[in-house]
């Protein structure tokens, strides 16, 4: 077993803004806001006490695309379609190094905001959402809620002797946070699975047995998540849920690295573009763009 450590805020360099997809005007869901929670795979450095999102800067603060772990756009900022007629406005509570619940799986430092902490911030500063379509701000119908978390829960805890029990506790707390969002007015939920972190350069440097066991832990977590989402949907009326399986696009890039500008599937570079990986645990821009396109297709945004 080994621990993974992450930086909560990272330097950002200029990046090309992704062009809106050709099918943008054919979106199935007319969402105007995206409220997101997660870890470094999603972080942009947004502070709820700072500038709020606007068409000139859809992430609100800091400057677009924010403090990401790609040296540019991540999956969220690729989704926003800046400067287009359908810019999504983003309230992104994701925090680098986050676990679902710090009392279950400790982050690398106590100052990291867990999913529990992030949802509490949302409840304190944004909730509740009105249901009326005439509201000029976030409503139950015009806002998509997205959660992508778990790489630190699995990465830090898969080797624990009580993983079988702990993984269930993590997912129970995860779904409990979704329930809090529902109680605050959320009705549209996107959940992203943990990608195949056993194929990151960090884990590939470990023995094959570690890779296999961690891969099995990822699969266990994702099956529990899917079951949890199914129960959550059955319990609550008037909601839409989507579960996006990130494995497919990660495997696509890893199987075809040269197609995505990398010399191989294991190199990493802080420029975020010449390798598939930004560092030995975080994907670069090409993989994030694939995730974004997959999400857009699944949800209809």
List keywords for this structure.
about 300 residues; five-stranded parallel β-sheet; globular; hydrolase activity, acting on ester bonds; Rossmann fold; single chain; alpha/beta; about 10% strand; disordered N terminus
List the helices and strands and how they pair.
Elements (H helix, E strand, L loop, with lengths): L32 E6 L36 H5 L9 E4 L22 H11 L17 E6 L2 H7 L5 H21 L4 E5 L8 H4 L3 H28 L4 E5 L2 H9 L29 H15 L2
Parallel strand pairs: 1-2, 1-3, 3-4, 4-5
The helicity comes to 25-40%
End-to-end gap: 40 Å
- Give the overall pLDDT as a whole number: 91
- According to CATH, the fold-level topology is Rossmann fold
Question: Can you identify the CATH superfamily?
Answer: SGNH hydrolase
Number of structurally distinct domains: 1
Rg (CA only): 18 Å
CATH architecture: 3-Layer(aba) Sandwich
Query: What is the level 1 CATH name?
Result: Alpha Beta
Instruction: List the total number of helices.
Output: 8
- Report the uncertain regions: 1-26
Strand order of the largest sheet: 2-1-3-4-5
General description of the model:
It comes from Hyaloscypha hepaticicola. One of its GO terms (molecular function) is hydrolase activity, acting on ester bonds. Keywords: Hydrolase, Signal. It holds the Pfam family Lipase_GDSL. This protein is of the alpha/beta class and 301 residues long. It has a single domain, classed as Rossmann fold (3-Layer(aba) Sandwich), CATH 3.40.50.1110. The protein contains 8 helices and 5 strands; from the N terminus they run E-H-E-H-E-H-H-E-H-H-E-H-H. Strands 2-1-3-4-5 form a 5-stranded parallel β-sheet, with helices on both faces. Helix 1 links the parallel strand 1 and strand 2. The longest helix is centred in the last third of the chain and has 28 residues. The chain is globular, with a radius of gyration of 18 Å.
